Amino acid sequence: MKIELILIGMLMLVAFAGISYAYGFDNQESSYEYSWTTAICSGNSCQDFLIVCNDKEVVDMQPLTGLVTFSDGWEDPRGEDEKRLC
Fold first, then answer.
1. Helices (H) and strands (E) in the chain, counts
2. What's the pLDDT score for residue 28?
3. pLDDT tens string 14-61
4. Is 55 strand, coil or helix?
5. In whole angstroms, how large is the CA radius of gyration of the chain?
6. Type and span of the H or E element at 43
7. 46 near 68, Cβ under 8 Å?
8. Do 32 and 54 contact (CB within 8 A), yes or no?
9. Cβ atoms of 65 and 48 closer than 8 Å
10. What angle do CA 52, 55, 56 make, to 5 degrees?
11. For 12-27, b where at least 16 C-beta lie within 10 A, e where not — what string?
12. Which helix (H) or strand (E) holds 56?
């Protein structure tokens, strides 16, 4: 009798997990949210930001550091694809 109750309980648990898993995927939004840090520069002055993106759209930007100013003539060594926000 004890083994039967344990097996029934395990079967119910597996069934519940399967239903929850399937339901979650059916109702999931197709968006992808992620965050990362990057410097945003203007001329020779830069500031680090935490960027939160949803797919390719900026959701939030929070400054992490103060403004840093480099010497005159400094150029950002990153390529255009490295300067993108999302």
1. 1, 4
2. 59
3. 555 544 455 555 555 678 999 999 999 999 999 999 999 999 899 999
4. coil
5. 25
6. none
7. yes
8. yes
9. yes
10. 80
11. eeeeeeeeeeeeeeee
12. none
